[in-house]
Fold each of these.
Amino acid sequence: AQSVTQLGSRVSVSEGALVLLRCNYSSSVPPYLFWYVQYPNQGLQLLLKYTSAATLVKGINGFEAEFKKSETSFHLTKPSAHMSDAAEYFCAVISPGGYQKVTFGTGTKLQVIP
Amino acid sequence: KAGVTQTPRYLIKTRGQQVTLSCSPISGHRSVSWYQQTPGQGLQFLFEYFSETQRNKGNFPGRFSGRQFSNSRSEMNVSTLELGDSALYLCASSLGQGGEIYGYTFGSGTRLTVV
C-alpha cells in the first residue's frame, strides 16, 4: 500500500523567503512522486515529477524537489517566495506497475506575506 | 494545444436527482481519471479509464459510474444525489496508462452543489 503525508496544512512565508513544503511517502517499492499546485477554483497543475532518474528534480516557476530514499521524503522548495506562489500544493505518489491508483496528500496551503 | 475541458463548470442539483459530467482529454491522451475533491476528504480517486475500459476504481458507492468513448472523451454519472456529493469533480488525462511516467493534466473541474 502506498500513502503520502504532508506536514502542515498551512505554511506562511514572507515574500523573498525560502519556501519548504514537506512530503513523506510510504511505498513498498520505489514510487513515482509528483507535486501539483492548485489555484482557487482551478484544477491541479503539475509542478514537477520524480520518475527514478535524477534525485533532484527541477520544475516550473522555480520550484524543485529532492527525492531522499533514506528519509522517504520528497520535499518541495523554492529559494525565494513570490506573491503569485500563494496556492495549495499537493504531493502525490503512485507505485509502479501499471494501473496503480494515484494517492494524493491532504495538501498544504501556502500563504505569502508581503 | 487545448487542455483538458470539463463541462459544465458549475452545477446545482437537488437531492435524489442524477447528474452527468463531461471531460474531454488533451488530444492524443487515452487515459482519463476522475477525482472528487472536498474540504474534508481532500482528493479522492474515483476511477480511471484507458481505451474505453475501466482500469481502476476507488472506494465509492455504485451510484458513481463512468464511461469512456472511442474518442477518449469521458463522462461521469452520479445517481440519486446526496448532500455529501457536493464537491469539485476533477478530470485528469494522461498520455500513457496509469500516468506514472507522464503525470496527469487536470481540467478546471466541475463544481457540483447538491441542495
Amino acid sequence: DSGVTQTPKHLITATGQRVTLRCSPRSGDLSVYWYQQSLDQGLQFLIQYYNGEERAKGNILERFSAQQFPDLHSELNLSSLELGDSALYFCASSARRQGANYGYTFGSGTRLTVV
Amino acid sequence: LAKTTQPISMDSYEGQEVNITCSHNNIATNDYITWYQQFPSQGPRFIIQGYKTKVTNEVASLFIPADRKSSTLSLPRVSLSDTAVYYCLVGGYSGAGSYQLTFGKGTKLSVIP
C-alpha cells in the first residue's frame, strides 16, 4: 500500500457521460498530480494541485477538470466522455523535500472504460 | 524540462545483470535522476534516485558519469518478477512541495526463464 488511495478501481460508462475520479494523497502530502495512461502509452501528465490551488497544467482536455479540497483529497472530473478517454488514470502525491528520497508516490489507479 | 531517451525494450535471461541506459543531454544543474518501475495495471513505483556518481540500494544501482548527460540503471541478477517497464525521469523539486518530473516512453524489460 503506497498510501495514495484512488477510487473507484474500475469504472465502465457510456459515451457522453460524466464521471468523477477520487484521490486521497499520502498523509501530509500537499501536492496531487493526475496522469493518464492509455493502452501501450506512457504516462501523460494532466494537472497538478498544491494545497488546493492549481500549480501546473499538462495535456488536459477542456472536457476534463480537477480540484483539490481543503482536506487535500482531489477529484478529476471527466465529461462528454469519448471512447478514446478509456485509460488508466493515476494520481500521485508528493511531500516537501525529504533528503535524498523524494518524488512521486502513485496510487493504484482507476481503470476507465468508455463503451 | 530535460528530455530523456532510453531503449524501447530489452530482453534478459534470469540471473543476469541488466543495465538500462538513459540519455538526458539537457539536464539542468538542479535536476535529479530518478527511476521508476511499473508493472501492468499498477502505478509506477520508485526504484532509485541520484544526482552524481553512484548510488546503490537494496534493489538497484544507479551510475551517473561526471557530465550527468546519461545514467545507467543496473539490476543485479534479474528474476521473472523484474519484468516491467522502467522509466528514467529527470527533474526535481520546483518549490512549495512540487516536483516537475516528466515520464518518457520507458524501457520494457522482459526477463526470460
